[in-house]
UniProtKB/TrEMBL annotation:
Family annotation (SUPFAM superfamilies): Nucleoside diphosphate kinase, NDK (SSF54919)
GO biological process assignments: CTP biosynthetic process; GTP biosynthetic process; UTP biosynthetic process
Gene3D superfamilies named in the record: Nucleoside diphosphate kinase-like domain (3.30.70.141)
Gene source species: Dreissena polymorpha
Catalytic reaction equation(s): a 2'-deoxyribonucleoside 5'-diphosphate + ATP = a 2'-deoxyribonucleoside 5'-triphosphate + ADP
Cofactor: Mg(2+)
Family affiliation: Belongs to the NDK family.
PROSITE patterns given in the database record: NDPK, NDPK_LIKE
Entry binding sites for ATP: 14, 62, 90, 96, 107, 117
Name recorded for this polypeptide: Nucleoside diphosphate kinase
InterPro entries, sorted: NDK-like_dom, NDK-like_dom_sf, Nucleoside_diP_kinase, Nucleoside_diP_kinase_AS
A Pfam family it matches: NDK
Alphabetized UniProt keyword annotations: ATP-binding, Kinase, Nucleotide-binding, Transferase
Domain Nucleoside diphosphate kinase-like: residue ranges: 6-143
Length: 154
């Protein structure tokens, strides 16, 4: 994917976001921005699957609580595609700590506590690729061109 317009990121609505009925609002914000949804599913991940996903946090004292929380209910996993979608996706989500997130960001508008910050978003193009392939099997990520593509990109 050399074309910057085809950069991909992995976004996951965590159990609190699903329980609060915010999945549609989060998807709407990415769609309104002009990003393309190329994969989406709801699932209830296993402890092992989540431990692999969050492997870089394994040494942190909050890790066991994070895994318990993440297995407490279903999550909605998505892969979004578009120009600088990793960077912009992180900006749209806001700071990991919602109290440091600006109003207008997803976390700034809908969260208070860091342990209930609604979403996960890839922090780099590389992690976007790794996370997307961890959550979606071969063939589950779609290739398609939306009708508005030429109205979003020059």
């Amino acid at each position: 994917m050399a074309d910057k317009r085809s950069e991909r990121t992995f976004i996951m609505v965590k159990p609190d976001g699903v329980q609060r009925g915010l999945v549609g609002e989060i998807m709407k914000r990415f769609e309104n921005r002009g990003y393309k949804l190329v994969a989406c599913k709801m699932c209830r991940p296993s402890q092992e699957h989540l431990e692999e996903h969050y492997r870089d946090l394994k040494s942190k004292p909050f890790f066991p609580g994070l895994i318990t929380y993440m297995t407490s209910g279903p999550v909605v996993c998505m892969v979004w595609e578009g120009k600088e979608v990793v960077k912009m996706g992180r900006m749209m989500l806001g700071a990991t700590n919602p109290l440091e997130s600006n109003p207008g960001t997803i976390r700034g508008d809908f969260c208070i506590d860091v342990g209930r910050n609604i979403c996960h978003g890839s922090d780099s193009v590389e992690s976007g690729k790794r996370e997307s392939s961890h959550w979606f099997k071969e063939g589950e990520i779609q290739e398609w061109k939306p009708a508005e593509f030429d109205w979003v990109y020059e």
